[in-house]
Amino acid sequence: MTPLERRYRRLMRAYPRSYRSAYGEELLDILLGHTDPARTTPPLKEAAGLLVNGVRERAWQAARGPAWTDGLHLGVTALSAAHLATLLPYAAAVPGWLALSALTLALVVLGRARLALPLASLTAVKMGAIGTGAVFLDATLLPVEPGFLLDHSLYGYSGLLGAAAGPVLNVAGLGILAWRGGSLRRRSLWWAPAALLVAGADPAWMALTDAAPGPLLRVTAEAAVLAGAVWAGRLTGDLRWALAAALYLAATSAAFGEHLLHQSRQDLAYWGVLALLTLLTAVVPYGARTRAID
Amino acid sequence: MYFVLAALLDGPLHGHAIVGKVTELSRQRVRPSISTLYGILERLTAQGILAVDREEVVQGRNRRYFRITDSGKALAAAEAERMHHAAGLVRARPDLGTA
């Protein structure tokens, strides 16, 4: 294998695996046929084209199948990952519930809504109990103190709404998916490291004015993912990303709204960005290009 | 992509040939990257404007031949008519020396 072919193959990883299996060799054949064999690196135009069109192909493949079911599944996956991220700094205090949250995310990612539903329901009730200081199943020592990353207790600044909104919406979404039956697609395993990345950034009390790395990382990740959703909705004219974004925004807004009167301008701006991007995911598919020739 | 449809009006072509024909028909003005051209071929095929005519294996690699469908031909004709009308708006003016 020449260095040129190796580099082309590396760039082609931007495409989904199924596409590469079906058409990768054909595409590579033409790329090599149209590139000066004396070159060791692909021309910039072809390199950029492979990256951009690979991501586009991923969006097109993601837009297959029933939009509302897949959008709901995507929203539930994001909520499950966000919940795991919230619990991670409290691993030492609530290891069982953290494990349950991780198992729920794994089942959601695998598309097993019926198996995930009872686990998510248990977690939702427990989070509500922690938020209100009640006892549920095990005797959890309150307040639940963090082991790392944070300096405030779990839901220490939240009431029932802030603690339970995300988990309850998660249960509602999973309930609909379980009731509907049928198979759900297996989602990317990258959701687990994504949860690790935003660990400890609880939307109920992000304290953006402190410019701590955790909340800033979460804000950046959320804005980047939602901007990607806007782009995918525009490209494919599909509303599944809007549904997922709306579910996520609803959970974040409930936690955020609990302290609405005490939010700083930065916090309000953060919520405004999330709301604007979510609105765009719902609007842009209607302006998607429908002409075949341009 | 108008030139892709125009390139296939004479019969099915594989990717290699489509790239060359598009460049030739557009007088070198349209030279999309290979991946962009393939993205266009995939979308037009998904929309029923193109179809895969046949597949051949050359040196161990699959090679698809694309052909234009009847709806693709109608689309190309409609686009040609639209551009003809648009060109006529300028060409009919004697003051531009194109009439």
TrEMBL record, chain A:
The chain crosses the membrane at residues 87-110, 117-137, 157-177, 189-208, 239-256, 268-288. Keywords: Membrane, Transmembrane, Transmembrane helix. This is Uncharacterized protein. It comes from Nonomuraea dietziae.
